Amino acid sequence: MKKILKGTSFFVVMFLLVGLLAACGSDKKDDNSNKSNNKTETDKLSGTLTMSGSTSMEKLANIAIEAFMIEYPDVVASAEFVGSSAGVEQVIAGAVDIGNASRNLKDSEKEAGAVENIVAIDGIAVIVDKANTVADLTKDQLIAVYTGTINNWSELGGLNQPIVVVGREAGSGTRGAFEEILDIEEEVIYSNEINSTGGVMAKVASTPGAIGYVSLDILDDTVVAVKLEGVEATADNIKAGSYFLSRPFVMATAGEISEQGEVVLAFFEFLKSAEGKELIASVGLIAAD
């Protein structure tokens, strides 16, 4: 009887040990499975994301889609820079997922189905060549320069030198915003109309007496940004509302964001995330709330 009990106890202990080991193994397997699921959660998204539009938004668009593709390796995102109006037209036509516009959407564009999604706020810097001695302009002076009332820098306290008025081409979001803010649409007299933001920078940098306007985030040391009403063109001043030349960066969609596919939805969520806001700030813009 003792031998039987001893034998029974031995098998019971062994059974319990096996069960315990199995349970531990199962828990470990579940843990590994959960880790695996968490690891691949962001990898599940796949597909394409296409955008087109404003040349002023090139830096933001490129850095955003590059970071987005790192977050979602199975997504292929691309962007073209053909001007705000063309980008909005393309999104309305269904040729791209997002139309980038460096201005508010027009009523006609909204009526055609485009939805205005403001992702950032940008400042427009007024630039001159580095040899120019004029460092500050009032709003009225800027209006007078672009409408041809003032055409020599000596009238603004500078050198006796003709003013070469440089701007963007018709349809440009930067031009539209600039002229709308100054309320000079249809009144501007340009010496040169350039079809890209970088082109305006290069033209002003290489042309004595030139003045132009560009997106704040692309400024470099090849030109000088003049103060407006005594206020420098900086992100902090735009946030404070003291710098008057600012405009929205819009990523338009055909219909509400909630109506878009999962890749587009994920992209807008990414832009709203802490990482997205850091990216927006890194190119000199202010993230929209």
Elements, N to C (H/E): HEHEHEHEEEHEHEHEEEHEHHE
Oligomer: single chain
β-strand amount: 15-25%
Shape: elongated
Spans of at least 5 consecutive residues with low confidence: 1-40
CATH topology heading of the largest domain: D-Maltodextrin-Binding Protein, domain 2
How many beta strands in the DSSP annotation? 13
The domain tally reads: 2
Report the top-level CATH class of the largest domain: Alpha Beta
How many angstroms separate the termini? 80 Å
Overall radius of gyration: 29 Å
Can you give the helix content as a percent range?
40-55%
Average pLDDT confidence is 87
What is the count of helical runs? 10
Structure keywords:
42% helix, elongated, 2 domains, 289 residues, D-Maltodextrin-Binding Protein, domain 2, disordered N terminus, 11-stranded mixed beta sheet, two-stranded parallel ribbon, alpha/beta
Describe the protein's architecture and organization.
- There is one protein chain.
- With 289 residues, the chain is α/β, with parallel strands linked by helices.
- It has 2 domains: 116 residues, Periplasmic binding protein-like II (D-Maltodextrin-Binding Protein, domain 2); 124 residues, D-Maltodextrin-Binding Protein, domain 2 (3-Layer(aba) Sandwich), CATH 3.40.190.10.
- 42% of the residues lie in helices and 21% in strands.
- It has 10 helices and 13 strands.
- The strands form 2 sheets. Strands 1, 2, 3, 4, 5, 7, 8, 9, 10, 12 and 13 form an 11-stranded mixed beta sheet that branches. It has a two-stranded parallel ribbon with strand order 6-11.
- Strand 1, helix 2 and strand 2 form a beta-alpha-beta unit.
- The longest helix is centred in the N-terminal third of the chain and has 39 residues.
- It is elongated.
